[in-house]
Amino acid sequence: YESLSELEEMKGNNEELNALIDEQKSELEEQKNRISRLLRDNGNLNSVRKQLKEYKAQAEQYIAEITQLKEENELLRGSNERLTIARDSLSSSLAYKTQEAEDLSTAKAMLTSEKESLTMENNNLSKKVTAASAIRVENIVVEGMKNRKSGKSAEKKRAKNIEYLTICFDAMSNRVAEAGMETFYVRVISPKGETLAVEELGSGIITNSNTGEQIRFTKSTDTEYQNNEEKLCVNWTPNTPFSEGKYQVEVYNKGFMTGTGAFVLK
Questions:
Q1: What distance in Å separates the CA atoms of residue 155 and residue 146, rounded to the nearest whole number?
Q2: Closest CA to 251 of 177, 192, 189, 199
Q3: How far is 201 from 238, CA to CA, in rounded Å?
């Protein structure tokens, strides 16, 4: 009875352990009944004592096993609690890292936007500085010329008599521009609106810094600019007849149109 009572007290919330205790109690009940039968049948106390001793040892073994199982169960419960705490800590850490990653992503997007804005602003400022350093030209004069037999050139007014054009202009002083080599691009536009251009004679294409448009030019000239007013001239000899009518002249520096003019051939 003491063994049965002790086993009953060891029950807890573990269903498997409770089932094992009930099984062991059933075995003890069966043993108790077997001892009672022995006493009734032959009254052999020595045999009964021997059986009791064996049953007591078995009960003690059951109790020891159950005690060990309960201890192991407590260890497992402790481990489970630690794992739960670790899991919650990892979940919290993951949530923090996720939020941190989102914050960094937002900050990166803001920095990218700010960088693009600054880049655009810098490009605009650079464009303004470049525009300010473009050298303005004035007094564009175009003369139709023809070579004489003597080797000297004479000015002509009629298109059929002209062999080449001499285009002169004044490059004005600009203190914003740095002293050094400067290139001026001359564009001569015919009465039909076509740019006079022959690549073999020095014609080419430049980009309009204001619009990004590709523009053909007739001829270019280089000069060692010293920030002072300077007169420059270029000759255009296309080896083809000139047309009668009004011609337009445009001069570009650093991609900006810095001067215009016109002339008429009869």
A1: 6
A2: 189
A3: 8
CA distance 11 to 7: 7
The b/e string for 36-73 (b: 16+ C-beta within 10 A; e otherwise) is eebeeeeeeeeebeeeeeebeeebeebbeebeebeeee
Which helix (H) or strand (E) segment holds residue 16: the answer is: helix 15-41
> The tokens of 131 are what?
């525009």
CA distances 8 to 26, 53, 64, Å, are: 12, 21, 14
Q: pTM of the prediction? A: 0.56
Query: CA-based diameter of the chain, in Å?
Result: 166
- 53-97: pLDDT as tens digits: 777 777 778 778 778 877 777 787 788 788 888 888 888 888 888
